[in-house]
User: Which sequence fits this backbone?
């Protein structure tokens, strides 16, 4: 037995923008310089909280030590904790440190509290810990030696992870829902029950719920769903407003409802709200299923490969910690689920992407873990659930490319669709229904067909390996597979980007990419953009002869691959229709998986052929086509041809809306600040409702908040555009005046980084922590968690923080935008601008962005917030982006700072009557 080490006797280090402190084994704290701190941790392992963030503060990226977050992930897998001293204290029931120089002393106390769990007979995550610790010890995990002396081997052998996970079961198909009419009075009564006895009845919410009930009535004719486009102002309670009629209809019809969102944050919120419909936890798990794309879930086969030597070094430690989590996770969701968002960030060479199915590698029933697969369990559970909470992308994918029913248990799909965050439908559809023939996309299809080549590693299997049993049975199928393999050789292989730059292409597609690159550089006129390292693009118009000839050759190569894949698809269909004796349940599932994967690639190749036919041919008025070289910090990473719908909402209407019986599209900002009929015109364009040919209902209910009392808009008039020192100074002064609680929004990562670098230390010395996307080595969800938990913290970010960030109360009281969020002048934007009213289109886009940013401020009836726009030339026509009655003032920075400071003092007085600003 190894001797026990007292965690209170371990040295600890804490580093922030304010300074660096080390607590020695006796608990004495000393402030040190960077060089002294780096020397200390290099000589002796120190306790740390977040080694990557601490390393960034020290300027020492390779910092390592005894990271308390790694210990937390081992001891408490699938538990939530904000990765800050206060957050860890809250998770452990400890008193949080109140000063920076107390944190180094706190870390040993937190370690001791965590290690005490090992002696607790009721520690719920004990199973599997001892064996995981032995594996971590072999990987030289820093905590292993301290834990091994405290953790006794189990009395009986722990079950191996893959033996512990439950298997999903097949279920009979779900019947079609009964045709019923929902009574609005029943909806109102159910809403009263959901909001709780004694709760104040909100007329706006009741009107909204009664309006939403209309989508649950029987539709009058095919391809004409009952559709409602509804704008519900912030604070209406629209979630319960549509859940009340949905549950009423579910109970009467035995049908299913799909609720589609854009952000993972709203998916989590919806899951919590539906607990009011199904208070029993077991019933809720059965009746409500959260669905995401495959790339979000842990792949058990990838994990097994990682645990058996596929990962090495720090990545192998990450794999073991993920395996601990996999045994306790609710659903295997690694992105926005119960895997701590900060865990992958502790391992700079993030290995979690290799643990998911991001490349369509799944072999379905050929996988030994198929019956325990998190993805398959979720897919099958969704076919039996009453409510499926999906995202816009997945909802569109499933409508456009439905999987064979035998893969997911069959059953009737949801006939009622609710699109929350409906203002994002346009962007989601723009991505979903686009086509791109680029080097990276072509390389992925080559890998899918050929499998590993040369020295490449991993479990990727080519088409021949995945369908070996089919090939051995079916001669025509075998010929198709071999023809596809031969044709895939014309697609770009490893090292293609260097060959393109050197003009030494291999194969027809690489010759096309050489011609694309040449034309983009020849016709790109914005040399400043090129110098800045951003992407370059040019219209696909009047192509030069070299590009036309290369496109013809590429078209032949794509068609040569498409033909055998179509033939193979027909052979697989025949296998399913007239199954041979050897096609048992698992083999059929494997064939179904191949059919689904094959269908996706066939669709992609067909889109490529259409796009290549445009080179030298007539333009299609429904599409926008262009050539692009994608660059980041001056480095090329992809290039090729692109095609987007001019109106991406049109395929949404055709593919998603028309087959449904009822559709609700809702948001707080659907009209983008527009009023009356013009606002609904914009909403119908952005949602695609205009393509249904009439019969679409509209409903709007304003926010119940008193914006005249609860908010203020300050437009700063003396910060010149492009003056970065002045911009940084403005952010710093405003955040100091508000005492933190600020969300700073930027339209360019470069400016965000410059401002953060200039002001972070100054704010930290004032006791105001500053975090930033694209600077701090943490995922966006974790940054928001930290921001939400600390009312003195501020957060800088880009578009991802403009939507879906729900931070009610004192933690968010100031939103600062660096300027008017003008759309980027891309070829795609220019085409849409010309097609939809010129500057009016720009204005609708900008108003929607500003409205969403402003909407972060007031989330409760007792919130107060200020919105600051750092733009001296903010157009008056855009003021309708703000709710009616909101006070709007144009003033210089000094006065704006005074307004913010005065509001901060008033808020402190309201919260703490004894507060004195002195």
Assistant:
């Amino acid at each position: 037995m190894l001797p026990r080490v007292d965690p209170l006797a371990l040295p600890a280090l804490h580093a922030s923008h304010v300074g660096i402190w080390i607590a020695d084994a006796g608990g004495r704290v000393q402030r040190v310089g960077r060089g002294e701190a780096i020397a200390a941790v290099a000589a002796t392992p120190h306790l740390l909280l977040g080694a990557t963030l601490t390393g960034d503060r020290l300027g020492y990226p390779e910092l390592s030590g005894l990271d308390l977050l790694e210990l937390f992930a081992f001891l408490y897998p699938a538990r939530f904790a904000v990765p800050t001293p206060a957050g860890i204290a809250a998770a452990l029931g400890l008193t949080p440190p109140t000063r920076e120089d107390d944190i180094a002393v706190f870390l040993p106390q937190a370690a001791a509290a965590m290690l005490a769990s090992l002696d607790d007979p009721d520690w719920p995550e004990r199973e599997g810990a001892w064996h995981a610790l032995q594996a971590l010890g072999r990987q030289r995990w820093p905590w292993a030696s301290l834990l091994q002396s405290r953790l006794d081997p189990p009395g009986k052998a722990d079950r191996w992870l893959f033996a512990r996970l439950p298997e999903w079961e097949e279920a009979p198909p779900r019947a079609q829902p009964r045709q019923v009419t929902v009574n609005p009075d029943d909806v109102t009564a159910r809403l009263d029950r959901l909001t709780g006895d004694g709760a104040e009845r909100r007329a706006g919410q009741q009107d909204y719920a009664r309006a939403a009930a209309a989508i649950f009535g029987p539709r009058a004719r095919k391809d004409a769903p009952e559709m409602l486009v509804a704008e519900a102002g912030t604070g209406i309670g629209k979630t319960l407003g549509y859940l009340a009629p949905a549950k009423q209809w579910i109970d009467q019809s035995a049908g299913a409802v799909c609720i589609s969102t854009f952000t993972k944050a709203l998916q989590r919120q919806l899951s919590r709200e539906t607990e009011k419909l199904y208070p029993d936890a077991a019933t809720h798990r059965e009746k409500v299923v959260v669905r995401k794309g495959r790339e979000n879930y842990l792949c058990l086969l990838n994990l097994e490969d990682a645990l058996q030597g596929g990962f090495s070094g720090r990545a192998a430690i990450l794999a073991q910690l993920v395996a601990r989590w996999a045994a306790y996770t609710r659903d295997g969701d690694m992105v926005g689920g119960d895997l701590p968002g900060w865990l992958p960030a502790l391992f700079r060479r993030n290995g979690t992407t290799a643990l998911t199915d991001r490349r369509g590698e799944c072999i379905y029933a050929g996988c030994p873990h198929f019956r325990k697969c998190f993805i398959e369990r979720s897919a099958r559970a969704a076919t039996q659930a009453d409510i499926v909470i999906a995202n816009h992308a997945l909802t569109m994918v499933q409508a456009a490319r439905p999987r064979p029913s035998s893969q997911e248990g069959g059953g009737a799909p949801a006939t009622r669709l609710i699109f929350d965050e409906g203002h994002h439908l346009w962007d989601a559809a723009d991505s979903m229904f686009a086509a791109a023939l680029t080097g990276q996309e072509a390389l992925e299809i080559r890998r899918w067909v050929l499998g590993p080549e040369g020295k490449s590693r991993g479990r990727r299997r080519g088409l021949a390996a995945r369908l070996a049993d089919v090939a051995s049975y079916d001669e025509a199928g075998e010929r198709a597979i071999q023809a596809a393999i031969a044709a895939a050789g014309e697609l770009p292989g490893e090292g293609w980007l260097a060959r393109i730059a050197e003009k030494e292409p291999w194969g027809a597609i690489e010759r096309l990419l050489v011609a694309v690159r040449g034309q983009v550089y020849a016709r790109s006129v914005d040399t400043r953009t090129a110098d800045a390292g951003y992407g370059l693009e040019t219209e696909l118009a009047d192509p030069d002869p070299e590009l036309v000839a290369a496109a013809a050759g590429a078209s032949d190569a794509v068609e040569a691959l498409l033909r055998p894949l179509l033939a193979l698809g027909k052979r697989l269909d025949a296998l399913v229709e007239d199954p041979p004796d050897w096609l048992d349940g698992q083999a059929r599932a494997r064939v179904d998986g191949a059919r689904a994967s094959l269908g996706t690639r066939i669709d992609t190749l067909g889109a490529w052929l259409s796009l290549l036919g445009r080179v030298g041919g007539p333009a299609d008025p429904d599409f926008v086509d262009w050539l692009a070289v994608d660059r980041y910090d001056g480095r090329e990473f992809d290039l090729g041809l692109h095609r987007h719908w001019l109106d991406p909402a049109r395929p949404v209407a055709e593919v998603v809306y028309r087959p449904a019986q009822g559709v609700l599209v809702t948001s707080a900002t659907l009209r983008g600040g527009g009023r009356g009929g013009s606002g609904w015109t914009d909403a119908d364009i952005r949602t695609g409702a205009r393509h249904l040919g009439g019969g679409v209902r509209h409903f709007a209910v304003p926010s119940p908040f008193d914006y005249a009392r609860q908010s203020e808009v300050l437009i700063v008039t003396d910060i010149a555009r492009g003056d970065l020192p002045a911009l940084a100074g403005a952010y710093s002064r405003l955040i100091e005046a508000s005492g933190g609680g600020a969300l700073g929004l930027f339209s360019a990562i470069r400016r965000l980084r410059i401002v953060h670098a200039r002001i972070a230390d100054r704010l930290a010395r004032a006791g105001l922590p500053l975090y930033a996307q694209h600077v701090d080595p943490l995922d966006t969800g974790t940054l928001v968690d930290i921001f939400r938990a600390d009312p003195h913290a501020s957060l800088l970010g880009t578009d991802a923080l403009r939507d879906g960030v729900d931070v009610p109360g004192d933690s968010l009281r100031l939103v600062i935008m660096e300027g008017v969020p003008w759309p980027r002048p891309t070829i795609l934007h220019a085409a849409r601008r010309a097609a939809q009213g010129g500057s009016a289109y720009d204005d609708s886009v900008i108003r929607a962005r500003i409205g969403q940013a402003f909407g972060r401020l007031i989330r409760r009836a007792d919130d107060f917030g200020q919105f600051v726009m750092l733009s001296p030339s903010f157009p008056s026509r855009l003021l309708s982006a703000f709710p009616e009655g909101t006070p709007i003032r144009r003033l210089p920075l000094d006065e704006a700072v005074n307004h913010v400071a005065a509001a901060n003092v008033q808020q402190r007085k309201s919260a703490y009557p004894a507060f004195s600003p002195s």
User: Anything to note?
Assistant: Residues 405-411, 527-532, 912-918 have pLDDT under 50 and may be disordered.
